[in-house]
Amino acid sequence: MSAIYTVWFRSVLKYVRSKSRIIGSLGMPFFFLVIMGFGLNRSVQAPITGVEYIDFIAAGIVSMSVLFASMFSGVQLVIDKQFGFLKETLVAPVSRLQLMIGQTLGGATTAMLQGMLVFFISFLVGVKMPGIGGIFIGMGFMFLIGMAFTAVGISFASRMEDTQGFQLIVNFIIFPLFFLSGALFPLKGLPDWLLFFTRLDPLTYGVAGVRYGMLGSSQIPPMTSFAVLGSFAAAMILLGAFLFRKIKL
Amino acid sequence: MNVVVVENLRKEFDEIVAVDSISFAIQKGEIFGFLGPNGAGKTTTLDMLATLLTPTSGKALVNEHDVRTQQADVRKSIGVVFQDSTLDDELTAYENMDFHGRLYGMPKNARRKRIDELLDMVELDRRKRDLVKTFSGGMKRRLEIARGLLHEPGILFLDEPTLGLDPQTRNRLWDYIKELNTQKNVSIILTTHYMDEANALSDRVAIIDQGKIIASGTPDELKRGIGGNIIRIHSSELEKSRKKLVAIEWVMNVEQHNEHLDIAVENPEKRVPELIGMLHSAEIPVNALMIQTPTLEDVFLHFTGKTIREREAGAKDRMRMRKKRSGR
Predict the structure, then answer these.
(1) In the CATH scheme, what architecture does the domain B2-218 have?
(2) What span, in angstroms and rounded, lies between the C-alpha atoms of B326 and B152?
(3) ipTM of the complex
């Protein structure tokens, strides 16, 4: 247990300390929210009555920042490999499973913190504030998205030798995940082929969950979202743990 | 008592034999030096003892725990300082230590107390709140040594501890290592390709080349083993002095060369005055005199027919080939 906490603590400590990275990674969600949100607010009808488009995409943008932060948190593992710190942890008398779980929890926590920052920024620009219950539901789903995609990031990182390669691969899969997730548009009325891919995208269920928290309503029932995203997260953690175990120095 | 016992340990990578069935034992409290060129198999051996690599065959016990079957016990009982830095540059010295102490399950109070004690020992206590990225190479190495000792291991592994450090830092690091060994009674196994380092630090040395241990013993034993110390004199009357010298009981051997004589003796420093006096009274002129002490480099040369440097050139090529093949 203490090993998991130790690894988790290091991730969080490094995140909190990296002020420029935190602020830098707020840029894209901010512009998406403001430009897309206000730009399309008049012309796009949100599928939920009494909800404006900017309220609708706020949940999508929050999920996006969680997705980005969690996937890219895997880069730490590549850096630890490159600069030797990984050896220090691997030679310690703790199991690799503990190390991997600590790393995943750490990535998920920092991704959730990043999501919360975007969450609060969205209120500053005028998005409706949910009740306290809704905030907790939103945070729960943010954490699940974080767990799932940190595990994906760790899986890739386990096999990668350099940070550039890692970033290329992650960029390659992160954008389809984001655009297909219904973060920016309602699922209702999509062409069947597009709906098919949207339903395959695990992030769709994360976005729906966060949206349920923020708006009290979503197009996918929250229990379904929870079940699908939870299973996906569990599967990715298993995959990540498996690949992490096989890391060779 | 032996802290490390290795029997017929072997490691193969693809078709290359990195460590070729070596056997040795390390006694409690000693500094054991592994001397050999780069690519000789020193780090591979250390990695196997630290449970980071699985041996292809053979047996190794560290603090009486088997490196194959009792990995957690082995890891708990050793401290490792790797050849390249394994510090987190973005954390402070204290945080690096603290991370280590927590991973090894040290309780809070003991951890804090010992971190302060060790940082004090390596003279980094005033820098403990600074990020490691602001440290010099020597400071980083000292911090790593302190960290390796945090969980009170019975044995410390040092892989090329002074590689890339300037001579001054190197000498100070040697002092630390010796101090550690005597004051804290930590057994130390170190690898090095510097023969002066092996000579200065080790109680016993194993010379390793191409995966095999070719000689082992105390540095003195090894050097004596290849012919001992030599007093070399230059004189115009070599023949006459040779006759005089072979009659002396403490002279073990005399070799006559074109312009000088090589006289094999033990403790040459102590024999020089006597020798000079004797030649003087026999009215033999001595133009020059020098004491030739064999070094571990000579020992290596004696057993392999090559100097360490010559070996390294070849070994680097082999390593490069291997990396290419395995795609790394």
Answers:
(1) 3-Layer(aba) Sandwich (3.40)
(2) 37
(3) 0.89
Average pLDDT in the A94-120 region?
95
d(CA B58, CA B49) in angstroms, rounded, equals 12
* pTM of structure: 0.85
For residues B13 and A249, the answer to whether their CB atoms sit within 8 Å is no
| Element spanning A4, H or E | helix A2-17
Number of residue pairs across A and B with CB atoms under 8 Å? 59
> Is A2–B90 a contact, with Cβ atoms under 8 angstroms apart?
no
**A92·B103 Cβ contact <8 A:** yes
The strand pair at B31-35 and B187-192 is best described as parallel
Closest partner residue to A84 (CB to CB) among B51, B84, B102 is B84
The neighbouring-strand residues paired with B92 are B131
Check CB contact under 8 Å for A14 and B85: no
**Inter-chain contact B103–A90, Cβ cutoff 8 Å?**
no
Say if CB A209 and CB A141 are below 8 A apart. yes
Tell me: the pLDDT tens digits for A222-235?
999 999 999 999 99
Say whether pLDDT at B321 is over 60. no
Quick one: which of B210, B137, B190, B199 has its CA closest to B168?
B137
Cα–Cα distance for residue pair B310/B300, rounded to 1 Å: 11
Which site among B62, B85, B99 would you substitute to test the A interface, given the most A Cβ atoms closer than 10 Å to its Cβ? B99
Q: Give the whole-angstrom CA distance, residue B83 versus residue B160.
A: 6
For chain B, domain boundaries: 2-218, 228-292
Identify which of B75, B88, B89 has the shortest CB distance to residue A92: B75
Percent of chain B with pLDDT over 90: 48
Q: Please name the CATH architecture into which domain B228-292 falls.
A: 2-Layer Sandwich (3.30)
d(CA B4, CA B6): 7
Domain boundaries defined on chain A: 2-245
Strand spans (E) along chain B: 2-13, 16-27, 31-35, 57-62, 65-66, 78-81, 155-159, 187-192, 204-209, 212-217, 229-234, 253-256, 260-265, 288-292
CB A172 within 8 A of CB A32: no
Instruction: List, for residues B182-210, the tens digit of each pLDDT value.
Output: 888 899 999 998 988 999 999 999 999 98
Question: Looking at beta carbons, which residues of chain B come within 8 Å of A92?
Answer: 75, 100, 103-104
